[in-house]
Amino acid sequence: MIECLSCGRRQEPRLICADCGAPLSASLDSFAALELPRKLSIDLAALERIYHDLSRKIHPDRFASRDARIRDASLRATALLTRSYRTLRDPTQRGLYWLELNGEKLSENNKRVPAELAELVFEVQEQLTSMHDASPDSALIADVEKRRIELQATMDETVAELERNFNRWDRVSPEIPDQDRKMLTTELKAILSKIAYIRTLIRDVDRALENSKAA
Amino acid sequence: MARIFGIDLGTTNSLIAAMEDGAPRVIASRETGKALLPSVVAIAPDGAVTVGERAIEMEPHLTVERDGKVSAVGYPGGEYGAVIRSVKRYMGLGGDELAPEDRARYTFTDVTGPVVRFQIGKRVFTPSQISAEILRALKDTAERALADHEREKVERVVITVPAYFNDGQRQATKDSGRLAGLEVVRLVNEPTAASLAYGLNKLATGNVAVYDFGGGTFDISILSIKEGIFEVLATNGDTHLGGDDIDRALVDWLLSELPETVKLDRHVWNSARMAAEDAKKLLTDLSETEIVVELPGHTVRKNLNRDNLEKIAEPLIARTLKRCELALADAKLKAADIDAIVLVGGSTRMPIVRQRVAKMFHREPLCSIDPDQVVALGAAVQASVLMGNQGDMLLLDVVPLSLGIETMGGVMERLIHRNTTIPTSVTEGFTTAVDNQTHVDVHVLQGERELAKDCRSLARFKLGPIQSQPAGVPRIEVTFLIDANGILNVNARDERTGREHSVDVKPSYGLTDDEIERMLEEAIDLGEQDLEERLLISSRNDAEQILGALRKQLGEYGALVDRSERARMDEVAERLEAARQGTDRELIAKLVEELNEITTPFAERIMDAAIKLALEKKSVEDLA
Question: B552 catalytic, yes or no?
Answer without folding.
Answer: no
